[in-house]
């Protein structure tokens, strides 16, 4: 049977179309992110960190789970009710946790070293829920359950059904390489997503590829952060700009630790590994509306150590964003120009522009 052909407008990638080259560091925790409760020196700590490059993917599921753990503690200890709460971190996890708690009548404040130049704003926007290869079966179950909870929430936002978040997600076609498993199997089984179709995408540049086509959520990280901040300000949640070295620096006895990479210092968690990513944003695209699709494929490219697999992400954030690298153990924000050059090289070859 002949495959359906989908004609796509490719992004233009000449030098005049390159807006910004971005380096970001994600806090990746081996095997599984940490969503747990812990008592330290009379303080009750709710950890929520280590999601790495999948922070937006697992956002709602992980925050909901952290709040469920908090509610369970309230059932066991009535004295915790109405106590003030501190949230460490002003990324998407800190903001979402704060506004959920405040909407339930809790007295909360956000404590953060940085609120602007943080990874939450820089994400490409893919919903990619695949468990980590080294995860145990039990940990894989957590990936599936929290990921599906997140997806259902994003779907509600995208379709205008969320009770108070009105922007930041939309449903778009996404084309994955036939050798990439994004982890959507359970989502299809639970009827959150439709099964993919095998299609051929044609960029009208001589570049034609067989792909698996899904309709899934695109997360506009910058727009959703703006929406979360709008609600935080609407609820008059105070934000304190300072760095927390230890949990003893926080006066509240209930703390939600959403510190991202900062959680490594706070917890001395040996499983946190910094991961460096490179992204390129685009400008001067003649028809932005024609770029409302996502690409996630694997290509073979020559590197310093010979030929190796590399990833290409494209998402319609602003006028387009290209990615991505995943360099483990690298915590420098200094741009690696060679990685940007290689990213542009493989993207220009893939799209034919």
Plain-language structure description:
- This protein has 353 residues and is α/β, with parallel strands linked by helices.
- It has one domain (4-351).
- Helices cover 27% and strands 31% of the residues.
- The protein is built from 8 helices and 16 strands.
- It has helices at residues 59-76, 92-103, 119-122, 137-158, 185-189, 221-234, 263-267, 337-351, and strands at residues 4-7, 18-29, 34-40, 43-49, 85-88, 108-112, 169-177, 197-202, 208-219, 239-241, 254-257, 272-282, 294-303, 306-315, 321-323, 327-328.
- Helix 2 (92-103) links the parallel strand 5 and strand 6.
- Helix 1 (59-76) packs across helix 4 (137-158) and helix 2 (92-103) runs parallel beside helix 6 (221-234).
- The longest helix is centred in the middle third of the chain and has 22 residues, at 137-158.
- It is globular, with a radius of gyration of 21 Å.
- Tell me the span between the first and last alpha carbons: 30 Å
Q: What fraction strand? A: 25-35%
How can the largest sheet be summarized?
A: 10 strands, mixed
Mean pLDDT: 95
How many individual β-strands?
Answer: 16
Low-confidence stretches: none
Estimated helix fraction:
25-40%
Count of separate structural domains: 1
Order of helices and strands: EEEEHEHEHHEHEEHEEHEEEEEH
What is the rounded Rg? 21 Å
Briefly note the structural class of the backbone.
alpha/beta
Shape: globular
In DSSP terms, counting alpha (H) and pi (I) runs of 4 or more, how many helices?
8
């Amino acid at each position: 049977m002949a495959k359906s052909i989908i004609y796509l407008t490719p992004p233009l990638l000449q030098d005049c179309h390159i807006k910004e080259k971005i380096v970001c560091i994600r806090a990746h925790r081996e095997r599984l992110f940490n969503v747990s409760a812990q008592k330290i020196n009379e303080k009750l700590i709710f950890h929520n960190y280590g999601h790495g490059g999948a922070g937006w993917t697992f956002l709602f599921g992980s925050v909901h789970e952290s709040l469920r753990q908090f509610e369970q503690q309230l059932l066991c200890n009535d004295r915790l009710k109405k106590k003030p709460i501190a949230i460490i971190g002003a990324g998407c996890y800190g903001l979402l946790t704060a506004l959920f708690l405040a909407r339930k009548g809790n007295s909360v404040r956000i404590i953060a070293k940085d609120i602007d130049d943080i990874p939450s704003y820089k994400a490409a926007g893919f919903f990619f829920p695949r468990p980590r290869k080294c995860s145990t079966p039990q940990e894989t179950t957590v990936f599936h359950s929290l990921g599906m909870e997140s997806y259902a929430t994003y779907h509600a936002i995208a379709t205008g059904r969320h009770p108070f978040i009105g922007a930041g997600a939309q449903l778009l076609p996404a084309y994955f390489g036939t050798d990439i498993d994004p982890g959507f199997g359970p989502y299809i089984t639970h009827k959150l997503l439709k099964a993919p179709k095998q299609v051929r995408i044609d960029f009208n540049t001589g570049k034609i590829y067989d792909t698996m086509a899904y309709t899934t959520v695109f997360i506009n990280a910058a727009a959703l952060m703006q929406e979360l901040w709008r609600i935080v300000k609407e609820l008059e949640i105070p934000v304190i700009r300072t760095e927390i070295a230890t949990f003893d620096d926080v006066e509240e006895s209930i703390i939600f630790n959403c510190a991202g990479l900062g959680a490594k210092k706070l917890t001395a968690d040996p499983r946190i590994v910094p991961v460096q990513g490179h992204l390129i944003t685009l400008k001067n695209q003649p028809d932005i509306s024609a770029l409302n699709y996502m690409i996630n494929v694997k290509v073979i490219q020559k590197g310093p150590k010979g030929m190796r697999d590399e990833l290409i992400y494209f998402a319609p954030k602003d006028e387009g964003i290209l990615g991505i690298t995943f360099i483990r153990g690298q915590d420098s924000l200094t741009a690696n120009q060679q990685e940007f050059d290689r990213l542009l090289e493989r993207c220009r070859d893939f799209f034919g522009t």
